[in-house]
Amino acid sequence: MKPIRYLLADINSEYVFTSDYDRVKSKNKKEKLFYIRPCIEDRMFVCCLVSDQEFVPSIANGESLPSDDRYTIGEYKYIKENYSPKVAFSQTIPHRASDILYKLLFIDLDDPSSQSRISRRKILENAVYDRWIDYGTIHAVTHHSFFCVTGSHEDVRKSVINPFLTEYIEMAIISLAQRSTILSLSAEAAKFVEGIEDNKTNKENLGKIEDLQKKYAQAQSQILIFDVTPQEQGVELFDMLTEQLYIKENRQYLDALMTTLRDVANISHERITRNADNILNRRLALVSVIGVMLTLLQVLPTFIKFSILKIFNSNESCIFIKSCILIIVIIIVIYKILKNK
Question: Does the residue 69 lie in any domain?
Fold first, then answer.
């Protein structure tokens, strides 16, 4: 990250950042381009700290609810509101808490992007970390945001604000790096899977698959770590980040792809090795035939001379015929072996 931060911080940097690969391929020599290949979706991930003394109490047990209705069925206002139909604006209890909180967490400018009370209740239950809600602090994690909403007292700076701005945001960066790494490796692995369907598993592709396996092993030891902090609250928030960014599901998909590639690579390696052995056997058989032929060429003149002299001797004739038959059989056997290879 340091080189990228240095380039981004340098206002007078000569580098131009681009995600247009065609521009990189057709650039002139004087243009200094820094190509960034997008790995995740285009929507920006937002980390935000809100310091407001009244916000958390208003969504937890706001004064708009009668006192005997607060904490009914053990839930806070922003959850409880979604159990009843939304009332008209002329009445006193609209779905204001859940609307405001949902719009904040999902960066919605107009109406909430979820208009289902059942769906919104489940989303808020999964997104809000309410460990310190009665102390006026909540954390929230969605697929594209990480929020801390707390009070404005000076005593929350050390216990809430500083940890969020340092440790917890770094955890979000680690989670995004994990997601980007998994998606990038999955895209590379998918290309090789397409090559398998097209029967392109040659030696070059096997080498690339091996390199991809090495990259994945390095990522597992350097990036795909899940014990980032010993702090209990940090562990729970990191688990929420991992869940909201679908890291577990994406990693399972990547593991399945890598297992498939490993199995195919092993089978292809065995096939290539077997073909290489067959070619070697053919060459050795060919050398054997050539050796036999050279041997025959050396002994044939003497053998013919000996046979002509002894042709009228029945015993010598029998030996001659048997020798010819043996030579023919050897040649036929070698030919059959080469043909079967």
Answer: yes
Collapsed DSSP state (helix, strand, coil) of residue 1: coil
At position 118, the amino acid (one-letter code) is: I
The 10 Å CB-count burial string (b at 16+, else e) for 180-204 is: bbbbbbbebbeebeebbeeeebeee
Task: Provide the whole-model pTM.
Answer: 0.68
- Same domain membership, residue 28 and residue 77: no
What is the chain's mean pLDDT, rounded?
76
Is residue 56 assigned to a domain? yes
Closest CA to 59 of 104, 106, 119, 116: 104
Task: Kindly state whether residue 141 falls inside one of the protein's structural domains.
Answer: yes
Say whether both 331 and 288 belong to one domain.
yes
Say if 251 falls within a structural domain: no
- Determine the Cα–Cα distance for residues 332 and 24; give it in Å rounded to an integer: 62
Higher pLDDT, 24 or 167: 167
65: left (phi over 0), alpha (psi -120 to 50) or beta: beta
CA distance 226 to 145: 20
Amino acid letter, 72: T
Range of the domain at 118: 40-153
